[in-house]
Design goal:
The chain has about 650 residues and is of the alpha+beta class. It has three domains: about 5-270, Immunoglobulin-like, CATH 2.60.40.1730; about 390-520, Neutral Protease Domain 2 (Neutral Protease, domain 2, Orthogonal Bundle), CATH 1.10.390.10; about 530-630, Sandwich (Immunoglobulin-like). α7 (about 450-475) packs across α8 (about 475-490). Helices cover about 25% and strands about 30% of the residues. The chain contains eleven helices and 32 strands. Strands 5-4-8-2-1-14-17-16 form an eight-stranded mixed sheet, with no helix packed on it. β1 (about 40-50) and β2 form a beta hairpin. Bound molecules: zinc ion.
Length: about 650
């Protein structure tokens, strides 16, 4: 008996049709875009049967690979990601190295049972017309030489595949899903089937790019077509990438659900008997997009929060950058407390919330849903190399979290708006960054960061702060235009970091190397302070001097100090007690500067970055000086920051990807 909610059951029954009748359109190309949006390098046809009790899966995969590289190919590497969840794997070793108190040996996350490893085993491997090559498969370890890591396997066809030729692989494989780890696996009777099939690497920049699975890195794959048949128990509610094109109810109590996806570069699916299903429609400029929400029953009351932020985010992305071209978007509310929350796959994302989260605390579900949808653009369509350039997907997405959330909820309250406590999404990103600002540059390869904390702070928070600060140099509108051109130019391809940076320079018409060298390629930290302020009467040496406002003449000096090594031009606003405000500009090249004034007024205050544009500044508390101490605003600020950091510490346990 299905435990899905009324609507979920209804949808499942309607979708399943009657008896064993299969609903598959005669031409699958009619389902999605008839015109290819991408260079379809791969075509995966997978027929998989999931054993919900053992959390295992047996499948056959036919992969047709089109050689568009212009060279003969005599080697093919494949990812076997689930082998990362083995004791001696590189992933597990990196998790161990990075473990903090509360995480014992072999326990990459608190509460995880070390017996519940995962694995992916190739049972047979054939190349059509070239024979069975199962015995010739070799594990390779391109990143760290770890002989025990089995997350990449390689095969050498007896005959190289010529340019413009194609090759077909027939692979039989067996998966053991782990208890959910890094967004794949099972938790009770829930499963997120991600990174679950042998996936060929990407020929990129003249070589194969097929990295091992690391603790902090994500994925990289070629665009293509997916036809996937999933056989699962009939009581399961299923969701997946692409478009559902058929359901067959089998006599043995299982159902076979078929999906088709065009111009996507990965395929994930989920099943649980508990999902309640809501379907809705978003009108994109290319036509209707079917929204499929798979909700936990306990979170049904938050359905509108999910839908609202999803539709509003789709609206912003469509207007600002370009249309969402796919026919579906599946949003999964995963098993509570599992490691399956907050993850992106093509046309399929997981959110994450808890039943007690009040409206106004927008970290979840709003922020998570918005962020994961954003990945449909920065990862899904602009398919950068997540192993090597994490900032191009996570960071550009984090910047857009701020833009989209601010647009929907207002800049001051886009993160928190709860009982008088307010916080903007930009502060969230900056907080993330300033905790670990200086170990690694944005440009570092994902698995070479000092640790997970630095990877997160830099790839997400720093990139967002770098791009927000960039607005002060070229303007918000220009950056949006650059982002739009970057999206339209590089969607359905695999751009690198310079493609993005050069687009920004081209659209802005400015040479920004001095900024990118520090902000992207360097680890320089930005911190300016008001070092000292003084106002001394010109006639200070006269006996019986009586200072009189508006009459006494003063020499005033304001010292500004560049405390760290990030050189950035700043503005300083100096206010005098006659109401005058003076704006000074400093290029920041030297370590300090002094501004001097001679006038019949004292300095009341000095403030660096008076328009609050420099999000990269590590310490805002030293940015201003006020002659007449007024403790009230300061203490309010301190309270706010305490609130924010405590909240943030809690919420960061729900790690976003
Ligand atoms: Zn992300």
């Amino acid at each position: 008996m299905a435990k899905c909610g009324l609507l979920g059951c209804l949808v499942a029954v309607l979708a399943s049709g009657s008896g064993a009748q299969t609903v598959i359109p005669s031409t699958v190309s009619a389902i999605n875009s008839p015109t290819p949006l991408s260079q379809r390098v791969v075509h995966y046809e997978i027929d998989a049967r999931y054993d919900a009790k053992a959390h295992t899966l047996d499948a056959t995969e036919i992969l047709t690979y089109h050689n568009f590289t212009g060279k003969p190919l005599d080697t093919f590497p494949f990812h076997l990601y689930l082998n990362a969840f083995q004791p001696a794997s590189t992933y597990m070793q990196e998790r161990e190295r990075d473990s903090t108190s509360g995480q014992g040996r072999g326990q990459p996350f608190p509460g995880w049972n070390p017996n519940n490893y995962g694995a992916s085993e190739i049972r047979s491997f054939e190349i059509v017309d070239q024979g069975d090559l199962t015995s010739q498969l070799q594990f390779t370890h391109p990143d760290d030489g770890n002989q025990d890591d089995r997350s990449v396997v390689q095969v050498r066809p007896p005959r190289p595949v010529p340019p413009d030729g194609e090759v077909q692989f027939k692979i039989r494989f067996h998966d053991q899903f782990p208890e959910v780890l890094d967004r794949t696996g099972w938790d009770r009777d829930f499963v997120l089937g991600a990174q679950w099939f042998p996936k060929v690497g990407v020929w990129w920049h003249g070589a194969w790019n097929c990295h091992q699975f690391h603790a902090s890195t994500e994925f990289f794959a070629d665009f293509g077509v997916y036809d996937v048949r999933l056989t699962v128990p009939q009581n399961e509610v299923v969701g997946a990438s692409g478009v559902r094109v058929g359901v067959v109810r089998n006599p043995d109590g299982t159902q076979t659900v078929t999906y088709h996806g065009d111009d996507i570069h990965d395929f994930a699916w989920t099943a649980s008997p508990h999902y309640r299903v809501h379907e809705d429609t978003f009108q994109s400029s290319l036509g209707p997009v079917r929204l499929i929400l798979l909700m936990q029953p306990a979170h049904w009351g938050q359905l509108d929060r999910h839908l609202h932020v999803l539709k509003e985010a789709m609206d912003r992305y469509g207007r600002w950058y370009g249309p969402y071209p796919y026919k579906t978007l599946t949003l999964v509310d995963p098993e509570p407390g599992s490691q399956a929350y907050g993850m992106e796959y093509p046309t399929f994302v997981t959110g994450g919330t808890s039943w007690l989260i009040p409206e106004g605390i927008r970290e979840e579900p709003e922020f998570t849903v918005e962020h994961e949808f954003g990945h449909q653009y920065w990862y899904g369509m602009v398919a950068t190399n997540e192993f090597e350039d994490a900032w191009l997907d996570e960071g550009i997405n984090s910047y857009n979290d701020v833009k989209v959330m601010d647009s929907i909820f207002g800049p001051a309250t886009s993160w928190v708006d709860w009982f008088g406590a307010t916080g903007g999404a930009s502060e969230r990103q900056r907080d993330f960054y300033i905790g670990v600002p200086d170990y690694d540059p944005l440009s570092r390869l994902g698995w070479q960061f000092r640790n997970d904390a630095s990877y997160g702070a830099i790839s997400y928070g720093k990139t967002a702060s770098v791009l927000l600060t960039l607005e002060s140099l070229i303007g918000e509108d220009t950056l949006r235009q650059a982002m739009r051109i970057y999206f339209l130019r590089y969607r359905f391809t695999h751009p690198g970091k310079e493609d993005f940076l050069k687009t920004v320079e081209e659209v802005s018409g400015k040479d920004l190397r001095w900024y990118f060298n520090q902000a992207v390629y360097g680890t320089e930290v930005l911190d300016y302070e008001v070092n000292k302020v003084s106002s001394i009467p010109v006639d200070w040496f006269k006996e019986n001097l009586r200072e009189q406002k508006g009459v006494t003449e003063y020499v005033s000096d304001v010292w500004i100090h560049r405390k760290e090594n990030f050189i950035f031009p700043i503005e300083v606003e100096i206010r005098f007690d006659d109401g005058e405000r003076v704006r000074e500009h400093w290029d920041g090249q030297d370590r300090w500067v002094r501004f001097e004034y001679k006038k019949k007024a004292r300095v009341v205050s000095a403030e660096i970055d008076p328009d609050h544009k420099i999000y990269l500044d590590r310490n805002h508390f030293n940015d201003s000086y006020t002659a007449e101490a007024n403790p009230a605003p300061a203490s309010k600020l301190v309270n706010y920051w305490m609130f924010v950091s405590q909240l943030f510490a809690q919420l960061l346990t729900w790690w976003l990807t």
